[in-house]
Amino acid sequence: MYAVIVLIDQIINIYIWTLLIYIGVGWLVAFRIVNPWQPAVRMVTDLLARIHEPLLGQVRRFLPDLGPVDISPIVLFLAAQFIRNLLISSLSG
After folding, report:
1. How large is the average pLDDT for residues 41-58?
2. pLDDT at 1 over 90
3. Closest C-alpha among 42, 52, 43 to residue 18
4. Structure pTM?
5. What whole-number distance in Å separates Cα of residue 40 and Cα of residue 6?
6. From residue 60, how far is each of 18, 64, 69, 77 by CA, in Å?
7. In whole angstroms, what is the distance from residue 79 CA to residue 52 CA?
8. Sorting pLDDT into bands at 50, 70 and 90, what band is 65?
């Protein structure tokens, strides 16, 4: 059981890091630091969007419209950390 919880914890950890990268790439594109039409940038953003947009879309359905501010990544990040903390506490206790 320990190995399964550690594996799930590592998967959540990778998901959190890729979410942070997705947010960073989105900012770089929004501030025109990175050209979104470059093949490498497009490949990275498409891959990260396929991983994160399904859950971000679910979170956005429940959040109020705040105009140009999107807080769904923050909510998803906190939810992933909460699940990770639950796993760690169930492992220790």
Report:
1. 96
2. no
3. 52
4. 0.90
5. 32
6. 19, 8, 11, 13
7. 13
8. confident
